Amino acid sequence: MRKIMIIGGVAGGASVAARLRRLNEQDEITIIERGPHVSFANCGLPYYIGDEIKDRDKLLIQTPELMNDRMNINVRTNTEATQINPDNKTVVLKTEHGVEEASYDILILSMGARAIEVPIEGAKQSHVFTLRNIPDMDKIKSYINKRNVKTASVVGGGFIGLEMAENLHALGIDVTLFELGNQVMPGMDKDMTKLLEAHMVQKGVNLKLNSSIKKINEKSVIAENGEEILSDMVIMAIGVVPESTIAEVAGIETGVKGAIKTNDVFETSIKAIYAIGDVAEVTHKISEQDVHIPLAWIANRQGRLLADHLNGKQIEKVKPIGTAIAKVFDLNAASTGLNERTLKAQGLDYRVVHVSGQSNATYYPGAEPMTIKALFSPEGKIYGAQIVGRKGVDKRIDLIASAMTFNQDIRRLSEIEIAYAPPFSSAKDPVNMVGYIAQNVIEDDMKLIQYDEINHYKQIIDVRELIEHEMGTIKGAKNIPLGTLRNRLDELDKNMPVAIFCQVGQRGYNAARILQNNGFNVVNLDGGYKHYKAMYEKVNPPEVKAVEQVQNEKITIKEQLMKNEDRRVIEASGLQCPGPILKVKENMDEMKDGEQLEIHVTDFGFCTDIEAWAKNTGNTMISNETKDGKVVAVVQKGNNLPVNVLNDKDGHQLVETKNGATMVVFSGDLDKALASFIIATGAASYGKEVTMFFTFWGLNVIKKPGVTVVKEGLDKMFSKMMPKHAGQLPISKMNMGGVGARMIRHVMNKKKVDSLETMIEKAQSMGVKMVACTMSMDIMAITKEELIDGVEYGGVATYLGDTEQSNLNLFI
């Protein structure tokens, strides 16, 4: 008989204990668990908090009593292992009754991981929480219920942070999410997480990237930039590190992030001591490097294999690829293998393809869009994949992960025979399409370029339809729809490379084939304009139209008060762009001014598309929201809102009052720019809706520091002659070669007057709308990349539209 002690009774610990008993009745098995529970579903904790899981007991997979009665396993909860003595094979245990020492023949360490703690002022208060176990969950749930929580801050944009943001939001709590990096879900690439970030913003999450908090007050948090945000509670979800302190003190060797190093049979550097689960280091199957991957599947698999080894079975050590999935509101995000950042860091040559597909046949109701990103070597080895979509994401990531597990070439994905029927898939499943496109890249030398490369090309062709082109395109692109391309080849220069793009890549591929067969040097934009737009477009919460009460109190227009009896309703679920917009146009062409159209779409990108279309075509957005997994938008033909839409509590019609402020910022002088922002922030503080329209020299005011864009010819000359950013603006009088500007900045600093850069940030935080004139940008050779984040783009119609609701108009 062997005395086997397991420290840690969740996931790996419970798994190895159960398998040990099934294989051997003689061993004395003891589980030491610091908390009150063993074998609980810690991945389900956020969903119980958000009331998605109603029954708390369902999170308890096993109880100490059941493990004792059914498996003859001695489970000691509320018992903490404080010291390991390898020389005499004992462990010091701390219980509610005191301290004792227990012996072992074999010791298994499965302590898991603990939440990362950072030194933030106020982090020890009672309304600041982490979430790792059942007691943590109970404290959060109780606090929300007892304190009537209305606002919350979540710190960290990983799995737990996003799941908590969603579940708090589901309870009606206003959520601000802080992420120190420039993206959520750090295990994925930025071009895929942008889809998640846009969706979260549309859902109403106040997303703060490149930001964290420096102080926690009783009812608010203070961000690093000084912004104060109301917050009744704070969830710290920065990440986890292995709970390996006790092992390190005992002299056991550790590696990445302090995770315990083990050999091929999970044994540590000290004989008879083993480690599995989140506390242990693993070797990644693709990179062959030692890593720390805290995932439940790995822990459970390791537990089974270790039990087999301890009972004389031959095993092969787990080499995981890191397959994971998370629910983010209505979207699902999954990844497997290595991301692009890791491949670059390791110096590996790789190729990328993006595939836009549907969860099932588009003609069958319920088809949902998804985007797949696949990474592979020039020879076809699959390095990794990422998928974002609403339905069927798990099925597709599992197919790709299986192929990677069994070392399949990416081209073999096209050979997978997927169960096909219209409700479940397409005859050419998105995973099959990944294989086909990868084959084109590897064997047919189909040249793909990424979103950040196309602007370097001088001959760019948009092969989408005219209506798509008019809704937005890449600067300098010429519109030649695919159906007309063969007849317009003489409009292209054969001596110059041609960059092609469409909405998602398919038409671009067909266009590239046509041009290749006619002797052109052509590249196709991977992922199309949809992917390009997602990377460069700032996403704001959906616009809501509003009117003002006579007391200047804003009231949002409620859809139910505006609903016409004859509203036309159309279904466009499953259609990809431009399908939904074309349906809108076809129906609106048949309608009269004042009539309304309601459209249901499954592509979340439609939220921004319909806003832009309505604005550009002179129609009115009534509502634009996501519900039940769809975008539901209501558009009214024409600009006039229905009469008698809003009434006060006595049934009297409310009178619309203009309370906006607009200004044209034409000057690029420092003093005039200061005056502009002083007036703008002052007007915003009075509750006015402020629009600043930057044109010609005024564009220099909103340039971003430190950005260099390669230009040629006159564009290059313009760039050299103009200020690089707001910090280099001259003053209109007594500039004296820049000395005057430096003097006025010095005086402002001495008098504690905010700098222009600070004024710009404050204006943005107060909701001041900044619009860059696209026509002036073209003339002045200024690109979107050179302007600060948060700026919108438009023409004079945008400005004039805002002046209609303004009672203050200035030209500076």
TrEMBL record:
Domain (Rhodanese): residue spans on this chain: 459-541
Coiled-coil segments on the chain, per record: none
Entry cofactors: FAD
UniProt xrefs under SUPFAM superfamilies: DsrEFH-like, FAD/NAD(P)-binding domain, FAD/NAD-linked reductases, dimerisation (C-terminal) domain, Rhodanese/Cell cycle control phosphatase, SirA-like
EC numbers for this chain: 1.8.1.14
InterPro entries the UniProt entry points to: DsrE2-like, DsrEFH-like, FAD-bd_OxRdtase, FAD/NAD-bd_sf, FAD/NAD-binding_dom, FAD/NAD-linked_Rdtase_dimer_sf, Pyr_nucl-diS_OxRdtase_dimer, Rhodanese-like_dom
Domain of life: Bacteria
Gene Ontology terms, MF aspect: CoA-disulfide reductase (NADPH) activity
Keywords, ordered alphabetically: FAD, Flavoprotein, Oxidoreductase
Pfam family, one: TusA
EC primary class: oxidoreductase
Gene3D superfamilies, sorted: DsrEFH-like (3.40.1260.10), FAD/NAD(P)-binding domain (3.50.50.60), Rhodanese-like domain (3.40.250.10), TusA-like domain (3.30.110.40)
NCBIfam families assigned to the protein according to its UniProt record, in alphabetical order: PRK13512.1 (NF010037)
Family indicated by similarity: Belongs to the class-III pyridine nucleotide-disulfide oxidoreductase family.
Protein's recorded name: CoA-disulfide reductase
Species this chain originates from: Macrococcus armenti
